[in-house]
Amino acid sequence: MEKVRMRPSPIPAVTCYNFDAENTDEISFKRGSKVFVKNKNTGDKDYYLIEVDGKEGLAPVSFLQADGGEAPPTVKKDEISGTTKLGGGTFSDVFEVTWKKEKYAFKKYKEQLDFSKALQEAKLINSLDHKNIVKVYGICEKPVALLLELCEGKHLADLWKDDNDTFNPPLRIILIWARQIAEGLWYMHNRDLPICHADIKPQNCMLKEIPCTKHYSTEDSDKCSQCGNQRLSRLSIKLTDFGLSKVWENRASNTVAKKGYNYLLKTF
């Protein structure tokens, strides 16, 4: 294979599977190894040139996971108070807590999750800096949990509960929400090492503010004058739950996705 040019700024990554090299230009590694992507343009879209322990070689793109590099600060359980459960899912429960006199979301993983998995997710979120992606402020080892930005309005799925049959927002508001989601995904997919969320759904699209779901026929301010909650068109949508996120290098799908993003981003 023709020699490739080194990247001036290697991209940190972590391996998510064991790999045994079969060719002389490949390199073996174990799951969880910290590596650096030296070059993406190797002549084969399925392989990157990486460095492991000072040695270089080709590795399958699908075996690499983006690494945020820096972990958020460590938080101890006794530093947190006022736990109020907000919701939960298959792998975790979420609580509203107080830490250093500020309100946060405390994502507590189920007991079977290894701390290294939570640390990987924390590093990934910590590497992302976008207005439509939830922020991470700390990580706790006992219990295994993440301290996240609090989204008081819960998630999009909560807007269509069984006891709220009258909720029917106009299409323009739904497009505003879709644009915010698209902008967050666009940011993730256009990094040097693209990240696929892999679990986009209404439950993982958080509402930063408490929404007004009753008086949205007219909107002339950020807050509803009757209930004091945030107008639907002024809500901030935040992507969350990156436990299944991984490197995404499907170029055909990427092209289709970009066309969809461009349509949404040009709508307003």
In brief:
The chain is of the alpha+beta class and 268 residues long.
Q: How many domains is the backbone divided into?
A: 3
Give the spatial strand order of the biggest sheet. Answer: 4-3-2-1-5
Cα(first) to Cα(last) distance is 47 Å
Overall 3D shape: globular
User: How many individual β-strands?
Assistant: 14
Low-confidence runs of at least 5 consecutive residues? 1-8
Radius of gyration from the alpha-carbon trace, in angstroms: 21 Å
Domain Protein kinase: 80-268
Protein name: mitogen-activated protein kinase kinase kinase
GO molecular function: ATP binding; MAP kinase kinase kinase activity
Catalytic activity: L-threonyl-[protein] + ATP = O-phospho-L-threonyl-[protein] + ADP + H(+); L-seryl-[protein] + ATP = O-phospho-L-seryl-[protein] + ADP + H(+)
What would you note in describing this structure?
The structure is a single chain. With 268 residues, this protein is of the alpha+beta class. It has three domains: 11-65, SH3 type barrels (Roll), CATH 2.30.30; 77-148, Phosphorylase Kinase, domain 1 (2-Layer Sandwich), CATH 3.30.200.20; 156-267, no CATH class. It contains three helices and 14 strands. The strands form four sheets. It has a five-stranded antiparallel beta sheet, with no helix packed on it. It has a five-stranded antiparallel beta sheet with strand order 6-7-8-10-9, covered by helices on one side. Helix 2 crosses helix 3 (251-267). It is globular. It starts with 10 loop residues before the first strand and ends with a helix.
